[in-house]
Amino acid sequence: MKFNVGGPDRIFRAVVGIAIIAAGVYYQNWLGAIGIVPLFTAVFKFCPAYLPFGLSTNKKSEAQ
Fold it and tell me: Are 21 and 32 in contact, with CB atoms under 8 Å apart?
């Protein structure tokens, strides 16, 4: 699996994911579970939605 999520994109996804989860906990709503998606894409450096479009925010030097 090639990594396609780069540094700034990972940070943004992690912050958004944590914020969505926190909002779900605060409002006691199960929709906060949606925050798991951006959080996982930040942790695993892979976004399946980028594949069909051939997008990547990962620099070539970071790719493995």
Answer: yes
Q: Give the integer Cα–Cα distance in Å for 1 and 33.
A: 25
Task: Choose among 26, 28, 46, 29: nearest CA to 37.
Answer: 46
pTM: predicted TM-score of the whole model, two decimal places? 0.85
> CB–CB of 12/41 below 8 Å?
no
Per-residue 3-state assignment (H helix, E strand, C coil) for the chain: CCCCCCHHHHHHHHHHHHHHHHHHHHCCCHHHHHHHHHHHHHHHCCCHHHHHHCCCCCCCCCCC
Token pair belonging to 22: 């926190």
pLDDT, position 61: 52
For the segment 29-35, the average pLDDT, to the nearest whole number, is 96
